Every structure is written in C-alpha cells, then in structure tokens.
C-alpha cells in the first residue's frame, strides 16, 4: 500500500464527496430537520426483527468471548453505530447526539426483543442530515468564493460535534469551496481553466473565457452532488440493517459479522474466487450501469460483443423474457439480474461506449458460465538476483488470500479452486523451471480459510502440527498436516507486512516455528481468532420461517428482501475459537515478528488488531510436540547483518524512511488551506519532489525517466521485494555452505 492510499485510509471522510445543506424545520420534539420532511424514512421489517433476536441468542450462547448483552455493551453499540454513520462528525449536530443518548442503556433490551425502532430512527435522522447537506451544497455553488483565505477541516474525528446549524453551514461552505478549488487546480494542470486568475472570485471571473471555465467547474460539481443525492435515495432498509448489525456484532468482537443476503453471496464468492455470470465487472455511472472490465475467459470475453465502458440499460432472462429497464437502479439489483446459474441465458440492451444514451441499443445474448477470478488467485513470477558473481533464480508466489470453493468440492468437482491446489501447481512449474528458491508474498493478505492455511503449510513440511485452536470450552485441538510428502524442499522465504492477517499469520508462524524458512518484512496484523460461518437458515426455527412465509404474502411487506436459496436470511460469521502457534503463543495483538525486519510505515495503534477496542487479549497455551525442520538461529544474525548493511547503503532505504516521516506528518494534519496560490504551490512542490525521487529510483533500475504529469507504472519498483530477494540469495548461499543447524542431513 502506498503513502497516498494510507493517507486516504487515515482521513476516512465518510461519504466525503457529499456536501452541505440547510436544516430548518422541526421533525420531532427532539431533532430539527430540513424541509424534506421528518425522520420517519426507512422502517425495519419482520424478517430483520426475527433475524436480530436469533443473532442475539446465538452469539450469547456460542460466541468465544461470552460477552453479556447488557447496559454497558448497549452504550458501546450506540457509540459504534453513530461513528459508523458519521465518523468524521460532519453531519450530526451536538443536539442530535444528546438526543440519541436516551438509547444508551436500552439498545440491549431492544436487540433481545428484535426491536430496531431506535436504531432506524437514528439512521433516518442521519439520512435527513446527509441529503440536506447535499442540497445545501448545490445551493452554495453559485455564491462567490475568494479562494484566498481560510481552511477546510477534512478530519474532524477528534473534534467536538458541530454545535449549531450555523457551524455546520460554515463547515460545508468551506467544503464546497475546497471542491471547486480542487477542480480549478486539476483542470489547470490539464491545460484548461488557465484563464481563471489566481484568487479570482467564483463565478464572476474577470473575462468571458474565465467565466466559462468556472461555469464548467460548477456544472461538474453540481452533477457530482446530484448523483450523490440520487444514490442516497436508493438506500434501503437492508443497507441500514447491515450497518446496525455491524455495530452490534463488532462491539462484541471486530471479526464477528452478520451479512444480509446479498452481502453473504458476495462474501462466499470472494472466498471461492468463483461466481456464475457473464464475466464482467460493473460500476454505476450517473444512474447507468457501465461495464468497468471484461474478465478474461468468461462469456462476455469469448463473445467479443461487449466492451469496457459499454452501458447496460436493459436486462431480460432467457431467450424470450421481457426486458426490464434498469436505468436508475441500484448496482446490486442490476448485478443480481445479470448473474445466474451456469448454462442459463441472459439478454442485455447495451449502448456502446461513446454513443449517446438515446442511441438504439444492441441486443446481446450471453450464456452464463462459471467465472474463475484469476487476478485474485495465487500467481508466480521468476526474479533473478546477482550475488558474488553468481545469478540466482527465485520464484515469487503472490497469494492475495486463502480461498477455497467448498461448494464445488462438496459437489465432487475434481478441479475445484483453492489456494493450496493453485500453489502446488505453481510450485511444480517452478521446480521444472529450476528455481533456486521460493519466496511467498503474503503482503496485504488478510487471510481466509483456516484449512487452506494448514494444507498450504503442508506443501513445505513433512507431516506434523501446524496450528492449535482453543474453543469456548477451553478444549485445545491440534490441527495437523497429515501428508508426509513435501512439494518444495528448497530454500523458502515468506514476505509479510502489517496487513498480513489471520490465515497468513498461521502459515508464517508455522514456517517460522519449524525453522522451515525465513519470515521477512514487518510485524503482522495480530488477528488470532477463528470464525465459523453459519447460514441463518439453519438458525431460524420452523415457526420463524412459517411466520416469515406468511408475512411475505402480506402486501405491506412487499419490500421485504428475501435472499437466494443459499442464504435467504443472511449469514453470520462469528468467533468460535482462538488459534495458537505450535510453540503455544497466540498471534492475537502481537502477530508474527519477522526474522529479517523492515521499518514499519503503519503504526500499530492505528492499523492492526491493537487498534480494535473490542479485540481479545494475547495469551499462551502449552506448546505442541513437533520436530523442527531446521534451526535457523545460527544463520539469521549474519543474514540480518548483511541486510542492514545493504539497507544503510541503499537510497531506497532512505526513501522508505522519508515515507515514514511524511506519513507521520500527514497523520497529524487535519485541515487544508483554501488559498489557491498557497495550495497550488504546496502541490507543485510535492509533485516535483515525488517526480525527482521517482526518476532517481528509475535511473537506478535502468528505467527511462517519467515526464511531468505522466503516470508511474504500477509496481514497477518494489524495494521490499528487491531486498527480500537479496536476503534469499544470502540464504541460498548459507544453505549451500551448510550453516543451518539441528538437522544437518536435511540440506536445502
């Protein structure tokens, strides 16, 4: 993750492009709202009520932590729910928060009863504030701005709630000015808006051309705000319910989550790395669904009749089904119409990219198929390293997640997809290509399937324990690799970072405990808990289901969402156990500490398990009985010494330290100037500094320099990987010189 991405994560401006509104009228005795109406809005349905009661009962009985749902937890849930809606304190007023405090000790009882009235009321007040702010933003666009003074506070998380309507108006007026200023500067860089003098008021520029440029900026921003307003109107009670259940479950434990039906389907497809459909990624663009990407190998790719940026305006099922006009629909609703079982037909009305929406659409017929997400699967490359006059070939295997298509496996599909199966094929190929070592890249791998972490470890060790799990009864189970064969017995390294979590930590911890390979990078995330996925269809009683079946027939419940047959009532993933390394140590909070370390950009108190207030503590249990593969303690100090020597001599190391310094500086910033000249100067200086550094790095790599404004190719420079390859070259030499102890006969 680069510095910009991390900075964006830190800011977390909730719905940040959504701007200001005037709030005036009285909606209830307690909350003032704007003239769009009262806070009634969305309402819970009977299915959500029944699901909530069952969730509460399930978690109280089976969750690992056994946290009682009482008045104390009620307050935590309330605070988390409010924060999830308005983390940056941009929308709610202090008077709203004072009003919501009436629920501080009652939400526990409400949830037990399946009563979501209070939470929906809070959500609806937020919706009113939210849409009101957008309307206010639009009303401010034609007012003059000086662009020569003031600041915009983009990070208000640690500030008090807005005290009054006037304070809210002031904040969002500055946000509108900032958005316009951004457009001015961005378009100036592109060669447009060059006629608008620095500091010129908006929209009364000094000449006709300048006025025209500013008018375009205003229209662009107005369109953006109107699009946000349109999207906010599509929010339904399932969206609200998802946020409410997140606030509830994550107050118990950060890794316990309920998924409404559509999210459950998405989660399971992500785990399987497969889905059934046409093989296209879609996005919403001004009320119209646009094809963002065609996935290689899928029906859309093979048909060659639709392309990226084509727009879908109608969907029909089968060869004869009626078309439904999908303009203005929610994206997930359109996706649900296009996806479907393998072998079935879907027809699309498509407006080709570049043509007006009023053009005659093409009718495209596609037969759905199973889509394998190869770009989210394990992949390999071979890198060469020159060291001491010798060239080493190192196979780098990048694993983005621990996935498995259990549904296909249970159906007897011999080619079902999983991390271990994919990596084994890659290792077999790398052996044929005669690599000298393998480096597994688990950076930004957030985990996934526990069984896959165990079986993947088994590709590199003889049979033996991999991880221990302790359940709610304090019973400890040792999970073992029972296959004595080893797919790769050569030198092994594992790259990790602060975002390597859960299953990644199980794998890295086992490799380290066995002395099977080097762990290289930074301290990992520190997630040491195990989640079980339970379909709520298994939890609801027959009486509950009959009640819901009857409720669906009632016209009053016509908007009640019923999920697919797989998860009609959603899915709960909740913590049922804690895992421990075979040495007895939990990875909770502490994670895995690498053998060869790099400076950590991301502070532990901001990123990782340590940043979660509801996280479980670190502890230990008894070690498992296992036989180390090798003892690396004798070789690691020399590898560290060579690593540190290279680091200190490398310009890239200094760049990394600069990044850390810049990150810490940006983390403390909470506002930005609205002075156009000053902001332009700051950005130009930063751009010049970045370009100079990028070109210095490219020169060292023998790459051509970039010109001003030219985008840097993605991942063309990866210092951590480059240095990790150097470490692996040292490791290969140490192995060849038999510097490894404990099992001298087990040479790499």
Task: Describe the model.
One of its GO terms (cellular component) is outer membrane-bounded periplasmic space. It comes from Hufsiella arboris. The structure is a single chain. This protein is of the alpha+beta class and about 750 residues long. The chain folds into three domains: about 5-250, no CATH class; about 275-370, Pdz3 Domain; about 375-645 and about 725-735, Alpha-Beta Complex (2-enoyl-CoA Hydratase, Chain A, domain 1). Helix content is about 40%, strand content about 15%. It is built from 21 helices and 21 strands. The longest helix is centred in the N-terminal third of the chain and has 25 residues, at about 165-190.
SSE blueprint and pairings:
Blueprint: H1 3-11, H2 46-62, H3 71-85, H4 94-100, H5 107-113, H6 117-140, E1 151-153, H7 165-189, H8 208-232, H9 237-252, E2 257-259, H10 261-272, E3 274-277, E4 280-285, E5 288-294, H11 299-303, E6 311-317, E7 324-325, H12 331-338, E8 345-351, E9 362-367, E10 369-372, E11 379-387, E12 390-398, H13 406-410, H14 419-432, E13 437-441, H15 450-458, E14 464-471, E15 476-481, E16 492-496, H16 503-513, E17 518-521, E18 529-535, H17 542-552, E19 571-580, E20 596-597, H18 636-649, H19 651-668, E21 671-673, H20 676-700, H21 719-736
Parallel strand pairs: 12-13, 13-16, 16-17, 17-20
Antiparallel strand pairs: 1-21, 2-19, 3-10, 4-5, 5-6, 6-7, 6-8, 8-9, 11-12, 14-15, 14-19, 18-19
Helix pairs in contact: 1-19, 3-6, 3-9, 6-7, 6-8, 7-8, 14-15, 15-16, 18-21
